[in-house]
Design a protein that fits this description.
Layout lengths: L1 E6 L9 H13 L5 E4 L5 H15 L3 E4 L10 H14 L3 E3 H4 L2 E4 L2 E5 L20 H4 L1 H4 L4 H27 L4 E5 L21 H4 L2 H13 L4 E6 L6 E5 L3 E5 L10 E5 L1
Helix pairs in contact: 7-9
Bound molecules: fe (ii) ion.
The site of fe (ii) ion (FE2) has 6 residues, from loops.
């Protein structure tokens, strides 16, 4: 059993200084390391400074994946370059996808990929709902129409799923419990079955079917291993079991009032 300081969708660009200070204070008080952040940290212009403010406050290693909002006002390519450069300058701040598995204890290994809502659940072409990604992330804004933007998202999601497949194969050789950090939940089961988000119109923009297929396939292949997925993006707390050996947990979030948790992984 291990406990980690964990947060997702903190959107620090929406937090006033006093709210950010309270968040950092609470985060600092959670035991364990690394501090794990499952995306939507801020927007592109503030992403690197935000990660540095967090690392400075907690004085411990910080491991993160990127969320869609972290690219707003920039491009996927430039944001990835920026976080790689940050990691070269400050090795304690780690973007998980290129880092490879991080051992947490004898039984537990942490891996991560960003994940992208890929329209594979629900009807990605006909849903009337849109994320601001379409206007605010250069690679998506450059596409001529919705069908092309959906295709571009699926390319990003598929690349993350392929990376996740490699990471899981490495991780299962190291430990029996694999913790997967990602931003976009890989399964539709985390969405509430009542209220606004229960409409299938949301599924294409809230779930990454590609990483979900990878996790399900690898979990079936490794029935003795346990897989815990920590995600965000929905802003709604969920903790669901999928099959015999997959647990998926999502974090609650509210713009302007970032929160952190001590998550116990067993
Ligand atoms: Fe998000």
């Amino acid at each position: 059993m291990i406990t980690l300081p964990w947060c997702a969708d903190i959107h620090l660009d929406h937090a006033r200084p006093d709210a950010e200070a309270r968040f950092l204070d609470a985060l600092r008080k959670h035991g364990g390391e690394p501090v794990l952040i499952c995306g939507d940290i801020s927007v592109a212009r503030d992403l690197v400074p935000a990660l540095e403010r967090i690392a400075d406050a907690v004085a411990r290693p910080v491991a993160f994946v990127l969320g869609n909002h972290d690219h707003y006002g920039s491009s996927v390519a430039d944001v990835r370059d920026a976080v790689r450069a940050l990691n070269a300058r400050r090795p304690e701040i780690t973007w998980l996808p290129p880092a490879g598995p991080v051992r947490l204890d004898a039984d537990t290994v942490l891996i991560g990929v960003d994940g992208w809502a890929d329209g594979r659940y629900g009807d990605g072409l006909s849903t009337p709902l849109r994320l601001n990604d379409d206007r605010l992330i250069a690679e998506l804004a450059a596409q001529p129409d919705h069908a092309h933007r959906l295709a571009a998202r699926q390319v990003l999601a598929d690349a993350d799923a392929a990376r996740l497949d490699v990471l899981i194969e490495e991780a299962v050789g190291m430990a029996l419990h694999v913790v997967i950090a990602t931003h976009v939940p890989p399964v539709v089961e985390v969405l509430p079955d009542r209220g606004r988000l229960s409409s299938p119109d949301w599924w294409p923009i809230l779930v990454c079917g590609a990483t979900g297929a990878t996790v399900r396939a690898r979990a079936r292949q490794h029935p003795r291993h346990r897989f815990t997925v920590l995600a965000g993006h929905t802003h709604v707390a969920a903790d669901v079991l999928i099959g015999a050996n997959i647990r998926v947990v999502t974090s609650v979030a509210r713009h302007g009032a970032p929160v952190s948790h001590a998550i116990t992984l067993s």
